[in-house]
Design a protein that fits this description.
alpha+beta; Jelly Rolls; 8 strands; globular
């Protein structure tokens, strides 16, 4: 699906949302209540219309209990951009545990808060350019190009770019792969 058009990607994403939702016995109204995303927005996404933000994709993945990569599929869509932060899935591996790696780019001073992932999930951050502060309620690290940090991501966390912006690779590591 390397030559997929944006419309193909939206359609595939739409099919996945609906498939995961119905497999879990969740109505559109129920999914709206669980995610805080409007029913009309969800309806549009399930019809392949609209361009979901990073936050919308993460919220859907969390509530549907799937990885970001499972939700967007093997042919990841173009980078999602919201509030000065661009996120693109660059690799997904399902072996002994699921690992999803993202390229994140931050405009100068951009901040991206993140909800807690499921229990046992960790994140590994490698800064490629600029500086990036990564913070959890219990800890915080200022990382510069070449620095890496691993933290428990089953708590809220936040990324804040320095004055020159930043680029990083972030790997989300799930504790185990659920049986198919």
């Amino acid at each position: 699906m390397d030559s997929a058009t944006p419309q193909d990607l939206h359609r595939a994403f739409a099919e996945r949302i609906k498939s995961f939702r119905t497999a879990r016995g969740i109505t559109l109204v129920g999914l709206s209540a669980l995610t805080g995303i409007g029913k009309s927005t969800l309806s549009n996404l399930e019809r392949g219309q609209g361009n979901p933000t990073i936050e919308t994709i993460w919220q859907l993945a969390q509530v549907l209990d799937v990885g970001y990569g499972e939700l967007v599929g093997h042919a990841a869509p173009q980078a999602s951009v919201a509030a000065g932060v661009s996120v693109a899935l660059v690799d997904r591996e399902d072996a002994e545990r699921r690992i999803e790696t993202f390229r994140m780019r931050f405009e100068a001073g951009a901040c991206r808060p993140a909800d807690a992932h499921a229990a046992g999930v960790s994140e590994h951050v490698l800064v490629l350019r600029g500086s990036l502060t990564v913070a959890t309620p219990a800890d915080r690290a200022l990382l510069r190009a070449g620095d890496a940090w691993t933290f428990a991501a089953d708590q809220t966390h936040r990324y804040e770019a320095g004055s020159a912006g930043a680029a990083a690779l972030v790997s989300v590591v799930y504790p185990g792969v659920r049986p198919a």
